[in-house]
Specification:
CATH topology of the largest domain: H-NOX domain
Largest sheet: 4 strands, antiparallel
Shape: globular
CATH superfamily of the largest domain: H-NOX domain
Order of helices and strands: EHHHEHHHHEEHEE
Number of domains: 2
Radius of gyration: 16 Å
CATH architecture of the largest domain: Alpha-Beta Complex
Helix content: 40-55%
Structural class: alpha+beta
Number of strands: 6
Strand order of the largest sheet: 3-4-6-5
């Protein structure tokens, strides 16, 4: 089982409470498994590694209960987590750089935020990059959409305009890796 940094969980909880209110957030918690709920309700610290499966349970249940069940809320969560959760140290580099600068740092972000999987990037053409994630142990469609939203916002923060991102391959569909095609304008 993989882990992720607590800052992602904290940012997500803050977003859900702010966007939907404390009562709706409690309804989400009530619909989660007892094991997942216990992890999410614990006193999570920003730099702490947290098991990812309870987090996947949180965003999946939130998408089904507060969203439309089509992973659009998971994508929005990814946007928020990128905007609020990028460590201040890295934020300077992302927000004051060009999109390629941010793309080139994605492998470092990944290894900082997760203890599972390896992220690599491949330049396809000018302003089009493919991002490959191999060996991520907890593949789940809700999480793929959250990652998509994270990359999308990260590129926007780095100055990318009209960012377009699609997942072209996915481990949840039997592929050996998840691949995201990212395009943007300067």
């Amino acid at each position: 089982m993989g882990n992720l940094k607590g800052q992602m969980v904290i940012s997500t909880i803050k977003f859900l409470k702010t966007q939907f209110g404390e009562e709706k957030y409690k309804e989400v918690l009530a619909r989660m498994s007892a094991v997942s709920r216990k992890v999410i309700e614990a006193n999570i610290m920003y730099g702490q590694m947290v098991p990812i499966k309870p987090y996947i349970d949180l965003i999946t249940v939130a998408d089904q209960h507060l969203g439309k069940g089509n992973y659009a809320l998971c994508r929005r969560i990814g946007n928020v987590v990128a905007e609020e959760g990028i460590p201040k140290l890295y934020k300077v580099f992302v927000t004051n750089a060009d999109p390629m600068f941010a793309i080139n740092r994605l492998p470092n972000f990944w290894s900082h935020m997760y203890d599972s999987g390896k992220l690599t990037t491949q330049m396809e053409t000018k302003n089009i990059v493919s991002v490959h994630i191999e060996g991520f142990v907890d593949a789940h469609k809700a999480y793929c959409w959250k990652v998509l939203g994270y990359f999308e916002k990260m590129l926007e923060l780095a100055g990318g305009k009209n960012v377009r991102i699609t997942e072209t391959r996915c481990r949840t569909s039997g592929e050996n890796e998840c691949v995201y095609a990212i395009a943007w304008e300067q």
